[in-house]
Amino acid sequence: MASTMRSNAAKSLDPSLMPLFTELERRVSTDGQRLTLRRWMELAEAWRIVEALRECRGNRSAAARALGIGRRTLYTKMEKLGIQPGWGPEDDGSATAPPATSV
Description:
With about 100 residues, the protein is mainly α. The protein has one domain (about 1-85, about 90-95): Arc Repressor Mutant, subunit A. Helices cover about 60% and strands about 5% of the residues.
C-alpha cells in the first residue's frame, strides 16, 4: 500500500515547480527555519483567497463560488487568516492579507 501511495503522489508532483517552491520557501522562511506544513497551507490558502477576491473585485459571494466554498466558510477563513476586505472609494475591491512571515 505504501508503494501505491508513493507512486500516486509522484504522479501528481510537477518537477518543474520545485524551483518555484524552493524560492518561495527561501523568501518566507524566518531566521533560516523551514516552514511547517501547516504554515505552508495557511500561506497558500490566504494567497488563493486574496486572488479570488481580486478576480471578483471584492465580491465575497462571487469569490466563495469561485473557490468552491460557502460564503460563511469564506468569512470564517478570512477572519482566521487575518484577511481584510478592501473598502472605500480608493480601493480597487481587493483584499489584503497579513505579511507572509507573520505567524
